[in-house]
Amino acid sequence: MASIKYNPNGQKGKITYNSDIVSGIVVLSLQETEGIELVPSKNKGIKVCFEKEGVFVDISVIAHYGYKVPELAFRIQQTIKQMVESMTKYKIAKVDVHITSVIFPAPKSEPAEPAGEAEEAANA
Fold it and tell me: CA 61, 67, 70, 73 torsion: positive or negative?
């Protein structure tokens, strides 16, 4: 669990963020990124570590065919950084993105020939 002291207008108090909250923000930012899917696993391929330098995020995703991997990774890094820093007081130190595989489109099945044409071709 991580905590941040927050003192608006001189009031005493402390805001505490559970690491699950930051992980939830990361999941939300990944859902807004087109061309990827989360790795199906218990922790959804997301690791969040709180260090003195900031928050370190390590994620694994699956890319869709047709998207450029370097551009996807950069968009993921920027989206996570922007969303976590705007929704919490944490600073993102590093976002490591692992593209574990690529989803290819299903092959298109060829339309079947009408029965009459197939019989004519066989008799010829």
Answer: negative
The pTM assigned to this predicted structure is 0.72
The whole-number pLDDT of residue 82 equals 95
In a domain, 75, yes or no: yes
Q: Domain containing 50 — which CATH number?
A: 3.30.70.1350
Residue 75 lies in domain: 2-7+18-104
Residue found under tokens 């919490």: 88
Is the Cβ–Cβ distance between 117 and 32 less than 8 Å? no
Tally of domains in the chain: 1
For residue 18, which phi and psi values (nearest 5 degrees)? -80, 150
